């Protein structure tokens, strides 16, 4: 189904499923408009830890449609900025 730009169903937003990820949801957040995962706390004291975060994508259609996905975030080396190659974005 093709939806024209600007309809409620065409606007996808994101949020953390707090029920599925209560601990990780207190450490990470998701930008509502972009879906970008951001940290709420300094992770320098959490080396070699994997966090699991359930993110919900939803629209404002009638009825509202949503989907969930599990995002796993592993802190490998604190205080280091990750660098991703184009190959990792496939």
TrEMBL record:
GO cellular component, one term: membrane
Protein name stated in the entry: Cadherin domain-containing protein
GO molecular function: calcium ion binding
Major localization listed first in the record, in broad terms: membrane
Locations listed in the record: Membrane
Alphabetized InterPro entries for the sequence: Cadherin-like_dom, Cadherin-like_sf
All copies of domain Cadherin, residue ranges: 12-84
Keyword Calcium: yes
Pfam families xrefs: Cadherin
UniProt entry tagged with the keyword Membrane: yes
One BP term from GO: homophilic cell adhesion via plasma membrane adhesion molecules
Keywords of the record: Calcium, Membrane
